[in-house]
Description:
This protein is an alpha/beta fold. The protein is 58% helix and 8% strand.
Amino acid sequence: MANQSQDLVQPWLESKAPEYDPAWAWKQAMEKYTAPPPSEGLESRKERFRSFMQKFVRECSDKDVKHARFDGSTTWNEVQDHATAAFDEYTRQGRSWRHPFRSTGRIFGTVACRIEFLLKLVPSGDYLGVLCGGLSLVYDAARRRKEIRELIIKSFDSLSVHIKGSNSYIRMYAWNENLRMKTEEFYIAILEAIEGITKWLQKSYMGSTLKSFFNPSDYGKDLEEKLTTNIQEKADAFEDAVTLCLHDMTQMIHHNVLRVGQSVNGIALTVQETNSETLATAKASVVSAAQLLSLLDLDPPGSNGNAFVLAMERIQAERDYVLFFGRSLELCRQSGISFIMNNGQFQEWFKSMQSQVLVIHGMDLDFNPSEIVSPLSYMCALLAQNTTRLRHSYSLVHFCRLYTEPDHKSYSTNGLLRSLVSQLTLALVSTQQNPDLSFIGPMEVEAIRAKDIQSLCRLFEELLKRVGAGVIFCILDATSWLECEPHVADMHLVMQFLNSLVDAVGASQTGLVIKLLVTNSTTSQFSMDWFPKALELCIPSSSLLEGQGFNMLLLDLAS
């Protein structure tokens, strides 16, 4: 009976659902746009690639390689699983690189990466399966073999570059001759890269005495440069073709909208009058700002009362705690703060109207690991206190060293993110009273409640879009406390997300400026990987400074 019901449901959905849900109708419409047949050159190159890879699998002595399939049955999900496993191993080495097929969120717009567009445009048949078979093999090799891991990761990095626009529409242009040609060239470039890496693997399995075996570092760099240059050139050309098609579509929609708009001006006024109440109800948020603060789950168990009051009291108590113990630091320990405030790097970061990242490393020989409030923590609290007083300025600060107990609500990387989100929510409420939270639906509520890292990143991004013009000071103190297991993988994700966010805000030209400050009493292991374009400042040991105190030093914020 159950099977009979299932047999009836699928046909009904396919025939009736489009009448009720536009998403089904859209899906059916897009499926009608099929990719053009492959050229003879592409078919020939694909078959040569398949023959080479099948021969390699047959002759290779590595039993793990035997699982590779080039019959067209390998799926994209398998590629993602192998790539994720390889990146996990890379992270365990203490290195980091952006995952080519996974994003923390869509930064300031609708985007998809190059490989996602390519998957929509490859010819039907076994083309996708053959490509996935090759990518699965090399990423599985990256997982198992340390000497080739970085080469593979960097060779395919250009696949992850984002193209602004939705890949849902691109099938409409699959028959565009320029796009078809660039798609085939991009596809072939990936096959050639897989072949090049496989040939190196083949030599190492055979015990080759070539320089690639004895000196893999130099040979790997040469091979990486050759492969990445070829893929980069073809990927850039492919992106240009995709962007041109999407631009043409936008122009077409623009003209159609103008034409339709001229015909319905009279109707629009009537609709607006009769449906104003309905529209207001439809736009109502699933959650209010107060409910969002409660969902973030930062207050101690058993806390009752107004969510805004509880959040503000918690944030103020944290800052007051750091300020109180900071004032009790010896004068020689405070001298580093004066050094920072007078430093040109800090002045540039603080006074510039550009979005920037500043990383400060402490070099103090007197640093005590058990010390909860360091001179840098004190400086962060003072900076937050003073910048809050400026007009159109908002300070978000998180002291990682305060939360090292596993049972604390703010413990871990997601605690850091939830803390920033709660402070940003309060900043919005202080200026807008009822900020627009309509982007938070039932699914988002569950993800926030589950403390999902990627969902929290997207939440922070969406809230940031609603700030408008102004300056955000985002201050993260003592992040090195989270540069260890089990937090480091999430820290890679969050720090790279924040770096991308700073870049995106800087390029958005919306009047918003975000200044990210990251401090550590010791040198961070990963700051150069997380923030490759950041300003960096190292504080000399207090014994090398003159010992000027900071309790009486005023920040010249108006200059």
